[in-house]
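Friendly challenge for the regulars: who can give me the structure tokens for this chain first? No prize, just bragging rights.
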Amino acid sequence: MSASVLASRLVVRARLRHLQVLVKVAELGSVKRAAEAIGLTQPSTTQALADLEQLLECTLFDRHARGMHPTPIALAVLPLARRMLDALNDCAEAVVAFSAEGRSLVRIAALSGAVTGILAKALPVFSQQHPDILLQIQEADIEQIGALMAGGGLDMVFCRQPPVATEGWRFEPLLDDEFVVIAAPHHPLAGRKRLTFKALRDEIWLTSPVASAPRRTLDQWSAAQGIEPRQRLISTRSMAIVWAALVHERCVCLVPLSIASQLLDAGQLVRLNIAVPYAFEPIGMMTPIDSSGLATQKLQAFLLSFEKAR
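First reply, four minutes later:
Bragging rights claimed.
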């Protein structure tokens, strides 16, 4: 059976309930628990799963005494099913927003640094001033943002300026950014003045993924100093994991200030007094040149004013 034939069959016969059952059985490992979570009877849930397997002509779960485990086909399909259900929820939110008198919607995608450095500070204030505007925010990496922009599902994007201008979109810088070295408040070097890279030669570094700007900067910096940094083998963009690792043992980490700002402001981490001799691009917002709605224009004007006043 070809993919086009299967797609036509799914359009005619598949239901959203099939996807819901697939996702819940995978999450909970049991038809009984999935039925309880969805609000169906167990026989109805079993039948829905059987119908989906018949439609796809494949087995989605291996049945074991200890529960049900997704087959390789199910593991490939699950992320797509989750995205479809998420899209359904987004659709419902948009319809409700536009159906309510006077309401409007702004769909936003943002890098982690933009979320912590800009949106977390500005959006609560904006939302309080404009309670009629629904702000729908997705935190995503640059590849995901590109796909969302191509699909026409965004009104605003918060990122660093693309190396090549994106057709139909305007970029406006909002927040200057820089690389900083962070550590736990109890780190022995916290509070020391005018540190150099050589003062950190014996420290253990947490690293970002290889392709990331912080990782490239750390590699360049250490190579220029002729030092091979000791590394803890945890490569992550997650600030929750970075915070936990820094608090757990004596480590340091190089990150953009925008990403660490909330934890620094809360006193949960500290910035070591060392200048990183490598610049980083500012974070800004991208908006469509010709088709911004009134709500998007209001948020755009607010953010320009908010960041200017900081």
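Residues 125 and 294 are 18 Å apart (CA to CA). The first strand starts at residue 61 and ends at 64. Your move, everyone else.
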